[in-house]
Amino acid sequence: MLKFTLLNLVAFALLTSSAAIAQIDECKKFRISFNSALEIHPRGVFYGGNKIGTIDNFDSTKSNIVDICIFKEHSSEIEKNTICYISEDSIIVYNVWASGQDIPENSTIPGFSSKLSLFWYEIQLIFRSIID
After folding, report:
1. Contact yes or no for 74/102 (Cβ under 8 A)
2. Whole-model pTM?
3. According to the model, what pLDDT value does residue 40 have?
């Protein structure tokens, strides 16, 4: 009976280790730098109502920086004009306008702690594009 339990524990450890390694290979990592400190710990990364990633690291001492892991099948949602904002307890991925240009893994994405600050950023972008 003891051998069977030890064998189960070893098998479980091997399976969970390989699952963890597979999960690392199945996502792309990015960093979000929010315009202000977050008051919540985000529960996930969403796009169009679908969960497309997880929170990889949230350092409460630098509460405006969040490392995320985007599932590879959704990594094309992270492109040149991607920004993120907080809605309730989630990070929402938002593309200001489609560029079709993926950004490299480990890039930093601008983030906004509210929709109001996001809209102000968009107004500034539109204004700059008109002037240029």
Report:
1. no
2. 0.75
3. 85
